[in-house]
Amino acid sequence: MADDHKLFAAGIERLLSNEPDFSVEKVVHNGKEAIAALDEIKMDLVITDMNMPGLNGLDILNHIKKKRWKVKTIVLSMYDDEEIFKKCIKQGVNAYVLKNADPEELIYTIREVMEDRYLANFDHVLNQAEEGDEFEQYDHFKAKFRLSKREMEILRWIVKGKTNKEIAEQLYLSIFTVETHRKHLHQKLSVSSVTELVKKALDMGL
Amino acid sequence: MIEDDSLQTFFAILAGVVLMVIMAAFIIAIVIVHRQRQIKNRHKIQIIKADFKNTILNAEKEIREHTLHYVSQELHDNIGQLLSLTKLVLNNSDPASVFEGRKLINQIIKEVRSLSRSINKDYINDVQFESFLKEELGKVQKSGFCEVSFVNEGEQIDFVEGDKKLVLIRLVQECLNNSIKHASPTLISIELKNVRGKLLLCIIDNGEGFDVTNVSQGLGLRNINARVEAIGGKVQIGSELGKGTRIEIELENDK
Predict the structure, then answer these.
(1) Cβ of A24 under 8 Å from any chain B Cβ?
(2) Could you give the ipTM of this predicted complex?
(3) How many domains does chain A have?
């Protein structure tokens, strides 16, 4: 994990460490240290900031690409600029997340990247940082079943009768991701079929 | 005989007249040349004055641009990130997270306050030159780019002309910018010595350095030279590939 903003890096480290299946191996504050750390420790995933003194995020991606290291990469950036997004994709980044995205989106994205089901799409990147929660009126519902914003969104589409494939296209997600979310929805709402799921959602007024 | 005499007088008068005409022409010519020279001189002085004014105006403009750039960068890279982080921390509602969130908001308030100070248009006029140098170096260090050091010897500096301070401030910003952009040093130092109205300012980095004789790097150097000359100072630029760069500015700060 590389970020020159020390407080921010520490915050992300704490967020990720809260996930039982994640472990943050090393936090560095510039590109040089990141590459040195990559040389030294075997890691599954690098999360890097874009704008750092000396070597920046793109340089790190480029270095990883040149060395053909097998490590996965996520750029965590302040820039909601499509040009920068495209440059990162060109350097072979696995995912791009905005720093003001919901924290759970970063965690989702990490899982998607590790399971090779992340689809890189700029609209999706913007969507992750979208302000205002359109499901605010269902807050008690969300809270009761501990649903995330994404799960609420997917549930709404299911209620409308969309298929997994259609939802995936709508939300710029891979079909596997939608399936995973559906599985979670079934678990969290403790239902076993689509009919039950829809019924429950309608009962709650969604 | 009489005719001969009058002829002679005639020639004498003629010669006298010719001589006078020549002398008059000569005097007129001298006057004209002198006038022209005067006009040219006055013109030259005007050009020098205009140049000086231009230097000051440019310095003012560039300081303003520099500040705007700094503010935009701070908003984006520092305050924006702190806000994102706060959002992230406040996603959890346990007491520890709320406490952390409040700490972050306090930090943001502090950063915004210091930022608004640097936009204040009186800042450059009011700031002590020494504190300005310290603050500029502080910004470099805070960004995590490299280490800095500041040595200040001699008396406190009171600028007789505010313009000199302005140009010096711009020069320092320019030199620091060059080091950061091109030299990738691990240390930038500024040494300041003010003894009996004579000011010596050295800006030193231990970065990559450059070939002083290389023409392509000439423009930036010429700019620095021109500025120092405009405020009546002397500058020495020494650099060696792989060894770093040292810029020395000497300036009389008497009346």
Answers:
(1) no
(2) 0.70
(3) 2
